[in-house]
Amino acid sequence: MKKLEGINGLIRMPEGEGQERGDLYTTALYSEDLGSYLLAADNANRTVREVLSEQSTADLPTLWSALKLIRAAGAALPAELEKRLANDAMPPRQQDIGAEIAALWFWIDIGRMQGWSAIARKSFVEEALVRLGAIDVNSITNKPYLLWRLFDSYSALQKEKPSELERALKNVDSMKLPGDYESTLDFQAALEARVTHRKDLVAPSDARDHIVRLLDSNQVHDDALIASMLRSLELLNAHSEAQRLVKYRIAPRVDQKTGLIRSSTLAKGSVHGTYLAARLLDTSFSAVASERTRDELERVLKASETDLVPQLKALVALKRSGSSSWGSYGPVIERGKAALPAVVTLANLSGYIDLVDVLVQLEPSAQLARLEAFDADPGVEDLLSGALMALSNSMYFSNSEEVRSMFPAAQSALPQLIDSPKGNGLNYFRALTAMTNASRSGLGSNDFDKAAEKLRTLKGCKEFPSLYRMEAGKSSPCSLSISAAMIAVPGAYDFGENK
């Protein structure tokens, strides 16, 4: 596992290693800046077709990226992309307000790029307006980037903006220089707002030099932030500096085989990857964690802009790294306890599991919520996934015994789901983790043994013989996410195995 340590001391996700060949989303972020470095039209069309042909399903950012690249290159719309866009459903409602605004913005921007030809007939515009209108503007007045994305969504729909949104955006402060993730995006949003409202572009006199110094220093590795800073330079009329930075920082990362840009973050580890490694190694994680690992985890814990769940994950990893300082972060645990809901439904199930699964490793006596039963048609993937998630994590509900008897149709489908690693995707792995908690599935010890034997066909990859792969081919990279989830599967790991 030490081989996965990134340049920042955190653990990299091996499942992302294949992105060395270039990444569609990263390329889309820079597509308007690349100029002569951008893929030619025919190459862009072919590359998008190849990327989509490798994916049975494509999420919203991937579809957005594909369409943005096609438009920037002036390429013909591939039939595969046109089909995916026509069949793609509107994103589900998100509990987190930032995630809801982001999901709607991606969806609406796709419509804007398409001229609404692909989705207008589905009457999704009206639904999007309803969801935009349900967003409480007053709750995000201190988050300029969210205000801007909300404003831009209304603009794309060519609809009148709420008066409180107009007022909030006109009053955003453009005097705080970019420094961290949030302030970088907020600074860009403030500049965008002033240009849109034709107000004088008031910004710190050293804003241009400050951004250039940051980018020249190679301190910024996140492509979304680099792209945001380049856009801010454009808005500050520093076009020549922006183009110089594209030439020296972005163009060298173009993959000559695909024409796509490699992500700048591949050499860095993540809090999530470090947390998964800590889960897999448990008390052995201290032998893998370096001083740099501990320092970076503490930096994350001290950063006020870090979201709650990543902070809790960093704290779990810090605890298992052997550092005694984890005990000084009690307020993070208290925030986690306060965020637990009293009741869980399908709508907030995923968010609750993400939170409680981490929290109980720090506070085993945390107050668990009650799960309300919901209909789970095994023929509907999202509903089946929700049922399997609930069954897999039945121990995290106050009515755990009742949960183990819920979802009879989904439980009846378990024997078939665990019978073969092929064709079921993530639901195969979810079914494996759910089977021991499904009291109405009819599965017995022989079924568990057979499932464990079939699972072993996915075990091992280059350099990591005890981790699991997502796919059967030996060339498929190992997955920390899958491997950590398999801890709950009987027979997945041999007793005492050095994971």
Total number of β-strand segments? 5
Task: Report the order of strands and helices.
Answer: HHHHHHHHHHHHHHHHEHEHHHHHEEEH
Report low-confidence residues grouped into runs of 5 or more. none
Biggest sheet architecture: 3 strands, antiparallel
Oligomer: single chain
Shape: globular
Q: What percent of residues are in strands?
A: under 5%
- Summing up helix and strand content along with how strands pair, one would put the structural category as mainly alpha
Q: If helices are DSSP runs of H or I spanning 4 or more residues, what is the number of helices?
A: 23
N-to-C terminal Cα separation, in Å?
Answer: 8 Å
Query: Widest sheet: strand order?
Result: 3-4-5
Radius of gyration computed on alpha carbons: 24 Å
- What level of helicity do the residues show? 40-55%
Global mean pLDDT = 87
Please tell me about this protein's structure.
The chain has a three-stranded antiparallel beta sheet. It has 499 residues and is mainly α. The relative contact order is 0.09. It is globular, with a radius of gyration of 24 Å. It is built from 23 helices and five strands. The longest helix is centred in the first third of the chain and has 18 residues, at 97-114. The N and C termini lie close together (8 Å). The chain is 51% helix and 3% strand. The model has no long low-confidence stretch (mean pLDDT 87).
